[in-house]
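Co-fold these.
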Amino acid sequence: MAASASAASPRPAARPARGRRGSALGWAIPMAPAAGLLALFFVGPILWCFWAAFTNLALTGASASDPEMVGLANFREMFADGDFYSAAMLTVAFVAGSAIIGQNCLGLILAMLMRSRKAVVRTVVGGIVVSAWVVPEIVAGFMWYAFLADEGTLNSALTAVGLPANEWLYELPLLSVIIANVWRGTAFSMLVYSAALSEVPDDLHEAAAVDGASAVQRLRHITLPLIKRAAMTNLMTITLQTLSVFTLIFVMTGGGPGIKSQTLPLYMYQEAFKFSQLGYGTAVAIVMLTIGAVFSAIYLRLLRNEV
Amino acid sequence: MRRFIGLAMAAGLAVTMAGCGGGSESGSNELKIVYQKFGTYIHLDVMLRRLKPVFEQQNPGVKLKLIPVTANDADYFSKVNLMRRSASSAPDVVYEDTYVINSDVKAGYLRPLDEYLNTWPDWGQFPDSVKQGVKALDGKIYGVPMGTDTRGLWYNKTILKKAGVTLPWRPKTWDDVLATARQIKARVPDATPFNMYSGKPAGEASSMQGYEMLLYGTDHELYNSQSAKWVAPSKGMTDSFRFIKTVFSEGLAPKPAVALDKNLNTIVTTQLFPKNKLGIALDGSWLSSTWQKAGEAPWPEWQDTIDVAPMPTQNGQAPGKTSMSGGWTLAIGAKSKNPGAAWKFVALALNRENSLNYATTAGQIAVRDDVGKDPAYLNANPTNKFWTDLVSATHYRPAYAEYPEISNQIQKEMESVMTGQESPEEATKRLTESIQKIVGAEKVEAAG
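Predicted complex below.
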């Protein structure tokens, strides 16, 4: 944004000296509060995190008041801990299941189904889907807990029609949280795809249809190539969002039973706040930050190739 | 002009930041009292609310700010520790469990109380054994005990009678407990036979009311005070895990989904027991306080239905019964700006009258001699004598700074065993590895 503003600054040759200084100040002053706040609340914690990850900082005990530098000990311990690998695999499964497959595909399907429907249908369906997204995460988590719990709505409904009840959150913890997250997140993908689909010109479709292309062929050769950029943006955003989902899982299963739904954010919480090992917890945070950065880099690269 | 804008920006930023800082610079005439209020545990909250106007009248100019923390034990400690990391949120007076005193002293969170206790006439009412429990490794005292507790078996007479058990029920071994639980399962199918706390959600209750009530009834303890080493692995450790496995895999305990509910304690005391849905509970001496008149779920007739029995040792080895004891204190934060006033509050809250009141409402075993002899205390609850007598067979948790971390690992392994993710042997192996990592392998010895 800053770059485009200075590139577009008018008549640079007319008043060279004052103009340049003016534009620098004109850029710096309005940006200062935002930059200051970002530095304070975004860069600051990350730097602190990098420091803490190499210490044995704890919430209680001697290393709470007087933490020592321990080098790479936290990372060595992490990579030797079976629970960490389990958490990493569960995180991958959770992101793949709920974001890349569930939320992404369902959002696209909904957007395409709604495309040529009446305004009333669009408003009602859109309203329902979006309301799931507007609900705060903690409320969504509790609603799903109440729905899937032992004596919850689903089991009551099942037993009412003579079907056996199940301990959903206990037997299928990961699937339960994946479905809940798809339910919550689909609206976002749907909105992105709706906007992208409205940019696809109808006459292209009609021309292809006249040439005898089937609906599937039109989807593959016309719609998908045209919304690729939106799809990439959507995928990147929801991947990063889903990677850091904590509240929903914490409320529904607490990461349990055992560690069966303990993704990296819950693992980090357990180590930092339940087991009081802040240093170790921040080391996990750094690993998560790295995973997020790698994903962003891949998506950004794919986006650039598309231009 | 530009300069002015810059200044205005800086001022604006400063204001924003100050806003973010919390702005609780209210000076030293406000005392922050931080304590737990969770589930059925409302008694301290009730007492502090009652004492607030009394204290403020006695000490003009000092205001009390009551900060109840609604969280289970594990989360309570995390929250309080986070508050203590900053002077602006650090409590002046804090509700502190005896078992975390050593690690919190090492963290520099607590203030020694010796200077006040030396001139406090009431201190003589506390027996030496109780004073030992609040003395840290540096020899100073960091908390004033509010009461102590013991642990054992509560059982529902109606259910045991239905199952054909002879009353009063006095199990001699773990197998007796399991046999009765199996009998209940067979003959009273709509009741849960046995409850014990297990796994991470119940926090310290799992370690203490659950695992250690088993372990300290075997031939091994968690810590060998003679050799000053932690004991792991041991046969007792594996046997304790095996008991947990038996209870959960045979369906003698609540379904794991319920057993891992964060509110299990509330479910047991307010639903399962009063509604005749639970046979036996391995639980704390304070359980009945919930059913008293001032409790969260009054049930005046509980004495007709509920009785108590000591938890037997594994094979009935002497002394035949076992118990664990802990207790909470009021302590003063190291960062308190007005420790004098904070002390005055502690002295008021734990004087004879208020200690008596707390012991009877919260179901605590009295620690002050004058309260212990008071007929009002002795007659308050028919089980008081039973629980007080258990002190003779009781054990204390190893009072070392590493214990809270080890306790967390115990809960983690318990959960893996109860959900079938680990065998008892694997759990012992992993727990041993964790203990070695926490305290250093040279401070751990194997047994049995």
